[in-house]
Design a protein that fits this description.
heterodimer; A: 600 residues; alpha+beta; Penicillin-binding protein 2a (Domain 2); Beta-lactamase; five-stranded mixed sheet; five-stranded antiparallel sheet; B: 96 residues; mainly alpha; 68% helix
Chain lengths: 600, 96
């Protein structure tokens, strides 16, 4: 018995142990099998959905706004550029004590506390409310130091357009609003190119929200705005604006504008309009300052129109240069009207008709030319159509169809009445005469493909390409040269433009004084005038043209182009001629525009 | 363990790279700000204003009669308050 019990004891002990170990092994194998199965399930069947979830949780996309391109003058001075600044927003739903929150903010910001409080209370359920945009660096720092609840507020980076030259060339540049949309000037007309295309940056963050990776293959590089190199010369522009504002101060007109142009290329060296504004302070712009009179004002050109008629008449063989024109001692009947000259002349040479600015002489020339040719001349010199300069708001001017012209038009049109032109059209037409009869399109962009701009090999700066300047020959070079070198030069030497003389320079020019129409009477006003003066130099080989237009000068009772506009125009011309050697030099656009462009 | 170590190292390097991206952003912005500051300070209109002020002050300080400048005027001219961009330095004064 005892043996049996002794034998049976180990068996009874061993069997449960064996079973237990087998059970454990099976459990472990089962466990492993489940885990492997689960792993296969996760890695295989659920792979896609889990990947998506992980990506959604850890990756996020940040928009990289394209930095608007710069606008430079022809020598590389920055006229407009962009920096970033912070804008403050709040999350009203996360604010516990609105009154305290507002009180703290108003310690730093110049905002109306009552208005802000009401706005936050009214939008208490919302997730986003702007408080103030485009904060200064100092304000940003002060807000950070307020220790406001972090979930309740935040900064957003925004671009801020800056114009380091202040109000210089404001009408040419225009401005960008708070939403980075260009208004007026090059900012508006080249908005698409200057703005660029935004990019995106895909990033991965860890469980704590810290960025661990920038995923380059899934990011899109922003295409920054293109740089605009304008034909403006900043020094000529400054001089022009200063002299124009002095003119405005003295003669107190409603408005005035000035254009400086290279007649051979059509490049605008300076363009100013008064009243003006500072694009850095868009909130302080007077309502009448937005208009760029150089392209949007229309006025009857007066006597500045006469050289076109004379040159066209010579070109068509209607008159010869050495003809003598009868002027009927200052009074000439045309239909029911009697045409008068300021001074009576019995007869004048063709040259003196322009020098003395004889209306009767011009009427006689146009009678010989005929209405049709007069209309052709008007159209050929570009009146009644936009010049195509890269500025918004340019108007066509006003040239009625030929069918609407009558016998009076033969007297009025050659005097520069019955049609309205823009200052830019007028200087462009005169540039054609100065350019030996060839008309070029006025433009504000330097052609970067020309040898004027030499980008460095490593430069990633992309510039806006200028449209090709169209050129057409209107007048024989010989006739155009004669007009410039003889009658127009004599206008300044001994005619109505004597106030535009400069010692040692052979200047040509033409004055213009036109009565404005009076909407009340339907006729011309005796008190309101538009006066202008166009001049250029040197007469033998014109390099620069200057036009000044003054709308309704009121001071001192004077309104003649030779008195009001000529002195200022000649000063600008003198300065521009001094600058010309520097203007023509080549420039290099350096990468990132880190320095003003180097001259070679 | 090696795999985990490598993974950690990779993550650390990725963090460093992403930090560089933000640094580049900051530096570009700083560059833009400094460039703006330079352009504002060297704007021809500002320089002309400074030059005009300097000239007018210079003219005010110049004695009307032909005599040696007084000690006071020399001291004022030598003050370091003049703008940094001085195109002409005051002529040295000979001591009698």
């Amino acid at each position: 018995m005892s043996d049996t019990s002794a034998e049976s004891t180990p068996t009874t002990v061993r069997l449960p142990f064996l079973w237990r170990s087998k059970l454990a092994s099976v459990c472990m194998l089962l466990g492993w099998a489940i885990m492997i199965g689960r792993l296969i399930h996760l890695q295989g069947a659920q792979r896609e959905s889990l990947n998506t979830r992980v990506t959604r949780q850890s990756s996020f996309t940040e928009s990289i706004p394209a930095r608007p391109g710069e606008i430079l003058d022809r020598n590389g001075h920055v006229l407009a550029m962009t920096v970033t600044c912070e804008s403050l927003y709040v999350v009203p739903s996360e604010i516990d004590d609105v009154a305290d929150f507002v009180w703290q903010l108003t310690r730093v910001l110049d905002v109306n506390s009552d208005e802000l409080y009401e706005r936050l209370v009214k939008n208490s359920e919302k997730q986003f409310v702007w408080v103030q945009r485009r904060l200064s660096e100092e304000q940003t720092q002060q807000i950070r130091q307020l220790n406001l609840p972090s979930r309740a507020w935040g900064f957003r980076r925004e671009y801020l357009r800056q114009y380091p030259q202040g109000d210089i060339a404001a009408h040419v540049l225009g401005m960008r609003d708070i939403d980075n949309i260009g208004h007026g000037g090059l900012e508006q007309s080249l908005d698409d190119l200057i703005c660029g295309v935004d990019g995106t940056r895909m990033m991965t963050r860890d469980a704590r929200g810290v960025v661990v990776e920038v995923e380059l293959d899934r990011s899109v590089t922003p295409e920054h705005g293109r740089t605009v190199i304008s034909t403006l010369d900043i020094l000529i522009q400054i001089k022009t604006e200063r002299l124009l504002s002095e003119l405005v101060e003295r003669w107190k007109p409603v408005g005035a504008c000035a254009i400086v142009m290279e007649p051979n290329t059509g490049e605008v060296l300076a363009m100013a309009s008064q009243p003006t504004f500072n694009p850095n302070h868009p909130g302080e712009v007077p309502s009448n300052a937005w208009r760029n009179l150089a392209v949007s004002a229309v006025f009857e050109p007066g006597s500045t129109f006469k050289p076109f008629v004379v040159s066209w008449a010579i070109q068509q063989g209607a008159i010869r240069r050495d003809d003598v024109i009868p002027c009927f001692s200052g009074a000439y009947r045309m239909g029911k009207r009697i045409l008068h000259d300021h001074h009576p002349y019995s007869k004048l040479s063709v040259e003196d008709v322009l020098v003395k600015s004889s209306n009767i002489g011009m009427a006689r020339i146009s009678e010989q030319l005929g209405l049709h040719e007069l209309y052709r001349a008007t159209a050929a010199f570009g009146f009644g159509a936009r010049t195509g300069i890269e500025l918004p708001g340019e108007v066509d001017g006003l040239v009625r169809p030929q069918a609407d012209w009558d016998e009076y038009s033969l007297g009025s049109i050659p005097m520069g009445h019955e049609l309205a032109v823009t200052p830019l059209q007028l200087i462009t037409a005169h540039a054609a005469l100065a350019n030996r009869g060839s008309m070029v399109r006025p433009h504000l962009l330097v052609d970067s493909s020309s040898d004027q701009i030499t980008p460095l090999p490593l430069s990633d700066v992309r510039t806006v390409e200028a449209a090709p300047g169209l050129e057409s020959t209107l007048i024989d070079p010989e006739i155009a040269e004669w007009i410039v070198r003889h009658p127009m030069k004599a206008v300044v030497e001994r005619g109505t433009g004597r106030n535009g003389q400069i010692d040692g320079l052979s200047i040509f020019g033409k004055t213009g004084t036109a009565q404005k129409s009076d909407p009340e009477t339907g006729g011309y006003s005796d008190t309101k005038h538009v006066c202008s003066f166009i001049c250029g130099a040197p007469a033998e080989n014109p390099q620069v043209l200057v036009l000044i237009m003054v709308d309704e000068p009121t001071a001192e009772g004077l309104h003649y182009g030779g008195t009001v506009a000529a002195p200022t125009a000649s000063k600008i011309l003198e300065f521009a001629l001094q600058r010309l050697p520097h203007v023509s030099s080549r420039m290099t656009v350096r990468p990132e525009h880190d320095l003003p462009a180097r001259r070679l | 363990m090696v795999g985990i170590g490598l993974e950690k190292q990779t993550l650390e390097m990725k963090r460093a790279v992403s930090r560089q991206y933000f640094q580049v952003d900051l530096l570009l912005e700083m560059h833009a700000r400094l460039r703006l500051q330079v352009q504002e300070l060297t704007a021809p209109a500002n320089l002309a204003k400074i030059e005009a002020e300097t000239l007018s002050r210079h003219n005010r300080l110049q004695p009307t009669s032909r005599s040696f400048p007084s000690a006071t005027s020399i001291e004022v001219l030598s003050e370091p308050k003049l703008p940094l961009l001085r195109w002409e330095h005051p002529a040295p004064v000979r001591k009698p």
